[in-house]
Amino acid sequence: MSLDIVVGAQWGDEGKGRIVDLLAEEADVVARYSGGDNAGHTVTVGENTFKLHLLPSGIVHPHTIGLLGNGMVINPATLLDEIAMVRQAGIEINPQRVKISHAAHLITPGHLALDAAREEARGAGKIGTTRRGIGPAYTSKVNRSGLRLERMLTSKGFQDALSVHLKDVNHQLDRLYNSPPLAEDEILAAYSGYAEALRPYITETGEFAARSLLEGKRILAEGAQGTLLDLDHGTYPFVTSSTPTAPGALVGLGLGIGSADRVIGVVKAFQTRVGEGPFPTELSGDLASRLRGTGENEWDEFGTTTGRPRRVGWLDVVLLRYAARINGITELALTKLDILSGLESISLGTAYQVGTSSTKTLPLGPANLDEMTAVYETVPGWPEDLTGIRTWEDLPQQARVYVAAIESLVGLPVRTISVGPERSQVIQR
Ligand code: GDP
Ligand code: IMO
Ligand code: MG
After folding, report:
1. Using N-to-C axis directions, what is the helix angle for 184-198 and 155-177, rounded to 10°?
2. S-S: 338 plus which of 108, 224, 386, 405, CB 3.0-4.6 Å?
3. Whole-model pTM over 0.70
4. Which of 42, 300, 387 has most ligand 1 atoms within 8 Å of CB, for mutation?
5. How far apart are CA 250 and CA 308, in angstroms?
6. Phi/psi at 276 (5° precision)
7. In the sheet where 219-222 sits, what is the strand order?
8. Coil, strand or helix at 292
9. pLDDT tens, 2-15?
10. Residue 171 among the catalytic residues
11. Tell me: the pLDDT tens digits for 342-369?
């Protein structure tokens, strides 16, 4: 059995796409297991940069097969646009290469409209969602009124089910949110076209994944979002509506307990978050601008999906230890170490002050971070540019001290260190 799971150890955008691209070299199958096009995963190969929202990042490697698992919610319009985009870059997409779970759920314009209406209605208490219809699509799923992709396999039943769904959404938009109704006929026509286009890709991906493992193939599960956005284990209610943590890979791909080997936690060398919610090590002012960047570089801290500036801060080791526990992380992949070059000193949040006492764990999990003040340990920075460095020995001594501090504070090895967005800008240990 060989299933490796890549998870975001923070609030998303840790560089999962970039790490998946590295690991996909050795994988036969790369599988997304949760979330939808709220995700934005960037892969840079030479001059080409791909921003993938639904297709697994590993698809960039011609030898891989990509799965979109049953744990996902899929906007068919986005998926077809993305397929067209990657095809234009010369990447082959066909039903032999890309397989979509019959049990994944569809996102409709109804879900998009409800996402927007609910965010507006929350006012100051808004979550700051990506407005991609994610929460409402998972609500439909849990409510047992969702539209699974298998519906697209038969046209008549699909149109009827979609029509019932749209009538229900229009009722909610009118009665709860005082919003105008959606045009049912236009949506039915568009979705009939999407069904036609996607039908050949829809299959029992769980069976395919299980058979692949039995045949000795290697599956790489690609997490979206991050541990602290997990519906159960994140900073509730400022979370997404799925299970991006490692156990979600088993549920979201239809694989049994005991399938997984490695769990690779991707962690950015500092902390970022897009959207609302607590963030104990958050920085403001010049230091924040310095870590965020101006938006001039592709890798500056502006959302891949929404373009929103990301909130930034120092690495929070308390939360990282928590992520290690929740996911069963076996090794860390550290990204964006190059961004810290030139800082005089670097801080790590290693504990929280609550009233007069300090704690290194979370008394009530991350949902209650608001009352916590971060306590820091500080290490010296380094002036050298890291982007051309390819070995551990060549890293400046202070950079090695920083990495070693993370390893010892979290109790996990950092096996991969990324020093730039491009495929080759990496140190493997
Ligand atoms: P994901 O959602 O976790 O896949 O991450 P995103 O793609 O949303 O955001 C990560 C950004 O950082 C992307 O623009 C990547 O190209 C970039 N990136 C990843 N690793 C590195 C790195 O080591 N250094 C730099 N400078 N950029 C990186
Ligand atoms: P990747 O896979 C960062 C955040 C949103 C918001 C919250 C809920 O690129 O790391 P949703 O639209 O899911 O209902 O929004 O979750 N969020 C992400 N933040 N990276 C992501 O994905 C995210 N996906 C959702 O900003 O705070
Ligand atoms: Mg992202």
Report:
1. 140
2. 386
3. yes
4. 42
5. 31
6. -85, 175
7. 202-203, 98-101, 65-68, 29-32, 219-222, 3-8, 260-268, 331-335, 414-418, 426-428
8. helix
9. 999 999 999 999 99
10. no
11. 999 999 999 999 888 999 999 888 988 9
